[in-house]
Each structure stands twice: as structure tokens, then as C-alpha cells.
Write a structure and sequence with these properties.
There is one protein chain. With about 375 residues, this protein is α/β, with parallel strands linked by helices. The protein has 17 helices and five strands. The protein folds into three domains: about 110 residues, 2-Layer Sandwich (Nucleotidyltransferase, domain 5); about 110 residues, Helix Hairpins, CATH 1.10.287; about 120 residues, Nop domain (Serum Albumin, Chain A, Domain 1, Orthogonal Bundle). Helix 10 packs antiparallel against helix 16. The longest helix has about 55 residues.
């Protein structure tokens, strides 16, 4: 007699769970079929649990998945799906593997000699919770670092604008035709650093160089302009690097805010509000107007219309909306940002993709009408 298909599938299905003691795979009868124990160091356990929270697949999980593959398992039920190769991943936030581990981890820890007593388990649990709390507090303080980075970025922007203007004026004495034709600072720097204007790679510029109205520069003059151009280039590179740093830091510190606003706009919102805690306590109407303070004060003095948005004007959804819908969409985005900021501050859950999807659906409804 043939084995029923469902029963056969159940035999080839494993349930993957993670707790402070390690990573475990259970069969349908809740028996352990594979496991990897964590180190008992509270700092290490805390790092593992943080990685899980960030939807990372642990090395221990990968080892277990490979072991299950060799044993012939075709499906794994887990709360997070990753690259499981040819094994089918079934994602469930709650499943029997997690339930078994949550209810029996103390017994399992002692049976596998990970801990010698309940008292030792309690001590490790306490230290792990302390590590996670410290880590969370450090992340909350990261918003202050982000604010400083944003302020620095603004100053670097100003410096670049001044430097590029000086470079244009200086090199314009030597090769004014090139300065008039080139708008990109990077391209201008490339031309300046190439040296003699009659030897630039661009054919059109070489032709212009033959009849230039510019002054003659000595080798020493050219060398000094080139040195300055390199400083401008390094400053632009610093700006790009700082931009990337701000993006990554904001994604870590305020993942939900970053998902809804985009990391760079989220960083600017944190800077304007004065930090994550402050923005989490602001009403959505205030978040909507962050960056429009001058326009708001002018309106309050009776010198103009009330602003509809501040830096949110740069949000892609507002940019693509028609004039009549911009205000509605700004209110919608501000409302979602208010929720996102509170989640980042108080719950620590990363629901960014969900919030982003909800916002997209709501914006599309407005745009269709």
C-alpha cells in the first residue's frame, strides 16, 4: 500500500527555530533532527539574535539547511526565508518548531549540556537581555551621530560650491572656452588635471584651445591649479562617502523611517526634528512642515500662503503628483512617517517594507481619482 502524499510530504518537512541556546530543526513530531549550539557568551548570543532580527541568515542556519538537504528534506518551515537553494522555504511567523523551542529550551539546554542548571540559564538570559538593551540604547544614540553627519554634509556642500566657483574663475583665465562648455565639476576637474590645454583628450576642446582667448600660464601656474583641482576632487569624494555612510547609518537606526522617506531624507528629518525621540513625538502635521519653518513664519506674519510641505517636497511621490494632489499626498506621507518614527523609537520592529507598500497603495488610489 502506497504512503499517502500528505504524510510523505510531512516526513520531508522540517521546522526551524532559534533561541538563545542555538538553532534547531524539528520534525513533525517535534523531535530534534539537527542543531547547532551557540557559544554561552552573552555578547555573542546578543549579536546572533540581532542578526536574526535584521532578517539575516546565520552561519548555523546554513549548516543545518545543508544537513537537512543531505538527509532528504525538501521543505523547511521558518519565520525568515533566505537562499535555501533547492529546498522549499515556507515562511510562518509562528510554527510548531518555534513553539517547541520556546516551551522546552530550558530542558533542551540541560539535556545537551549547554547549561548545567536552571540558575545558569537564568544568569545567561539576564546577561543577554542586558546586552540587547545596551545595544538598543547605542542605536538610539546613533541618531545624534547622523545629525552631526548631516550637518557636516551641508557644510561640505557649501565648501564644494565655493571651491568649484573659484576653480572655474581661476582656470577660466587660462581656458575660458572650456569653462563655458563644461557644467560638470568632475569633468572640469578632469580637464584641469590633464595639464596643457592643447593636449586635452576632447577633440573639440583641443580645437578651441588653438584659438583660445585665455592667458598663458607657466608650468608653475598650471601645477598650482591642478593641486587645487585635486583638493576639490577629494572633497567631492568625501561628500559621496559621507552620503553613503549617512544612508547606511539611517537604515540601521531608523529602518522604518528610511523605508518610507528614503534614507537620506529620513536623515534630514531626524536632523530637523532634533533626533529620533523628538520626531517620534511630533504630530504628522508638524512632520509635514519640517524644513518649511521660514515659509510658515512668513505666513504667520501675513506675508504669504501657508506652506503644504517642507523637505517632503523632494519625496518621489510628491514629485510625480499633479499640483492638486501634492498636499493630499504630503499629508499621507507625513502620517506614515509619524507611524514609522514611533515604531523605530518604541517597538524596534522593522516593518518598513509593509509601511512602504501601504503608502504606495494609498498614493495610487489618490492618483487614479
Amino acid at each position: 500500500m502506497k504512503e499517502p502524499a500528505k504524510e510523505k510530504a510531512d516526513k520531508m518537512r522540517a521546522f526551524l527555530g532559534i533561541h538563545i541556546i542555538g538553532v534547531f530543526a524539528f520534525d513533525k513530531n517535534n523531535d530534534i533532527i539537527a542543531y547547532r549550539l551557540f557559544s554561552k557568551k552573552p555578547e555573542t548570543i546578543a549579536e546572533k539574535l540581532k542578526a536574526v532580527k535584521n532578517n539575516e541568515v546565520l552561519p548555523e542556519e546554513k549548516e543545518i539547511i545543508e544537513e537537512l538537504r543531505k538527509k532528504g528534506y525538501k521543505e523547511i518551515v521558518t519565520d525568515r526565508c533566505g537562499d535555501f537553494g533547492d529546498i522549499i522555504c515556507i515562511q510562518k511567523k509562528e510554527h510548531q518548531g518555534i513553539e517547541t523551542l520556546n516551551s522546552s529550551f530550558r530542558k533542551i539546554a540541560i539535556d545537551l549540556r549547554w547549561a548545567s542548571s536552571q540558575a545558569e540559564i537564568n544568569e545567561i538570559l539576564s546577561k543577554v537581555h542586558a546586552e540587547l538593551t545596551k545595544s538598543k540604547l547605542r542605536e538610539k544614540k546613533n541618531d545624534k551621530i547622523i545629525i552631526q553627519a548631516v550637518n557636516t554634509l551641508d557644510e561640505i556642500d557649501k565648501v564644494i560650491n565655493v571651491f568649484v566657483e573659484h576653480l572655474r574663475e581661476w582656470y577660466g583665465l587660462y581656458f575660458p572656452e572650456a569653462v563655458k562648455r563644461i557644467s560638470s565639476p568632475e569633468k572640469l576637474i578632469e580637464i584641469v588635471c590633464s595639464g596643457d590645454k592643447k593636449e586635452v583628450e576632447d577633440k573639440e576642446l583641443r580645437k578651441l584651445a588653438e584659438k583660445t582667448a585665455g592667458m598663458d600660464f607657466s608650468d608653475e601656474d598650471l601645477e598650482e591649479v591642478k593641486k587645487f583641482a585635486k583638493i576639490v576632487s577629494e572633497t567631492i569624494a568625501l561628500k559621496k562617502s559621507l552620503n553613503k555612510y549617512i544612508e547606511e547609518s539611517t537604515k540601521t537606526t531608523a529602518p522604518n523611517l528610511s523605508a518610507v522617506a528614503g534614507p537620506l531624507m529620513a536623515a534630514r528629518l531626524l536632523s530637523l526634528a532634533g533626533g529620533l525621540e523628538k520626531i517620534s513625538r511630533l504630530p504628522s502635521s508638524t512632520i509635514q512642515l519640517l524644513g518649511a519653518e521660514k515659509a510658515l513664519f512668513r505666513h504667520l506674519r501675513g506675508e504669504g500662503k501657508a506652506p503644504k510641505y517642507g523637505i517632503l517636497f523632494g519625496h518621489p511621490y510628491i514629485q510625480k503628483a499633479g499640483k492638486k494632489n501634492k498636499g493630499k499626498i504630503a499629508r499621507l506621507i507625513a502620517s506614515k512617517l509619524s507611524i514609522a518614527a514611533r515604531m523605530d523609537m518604541f517597538s524596534g520592529k522593522d516593518e518598513g517594507e509593509k509601511l512602504k507598500k501601504e503608502l504606495e497603495e494609498q498614493v495610487n488610489k489618490i492618483l487614479k481619482h
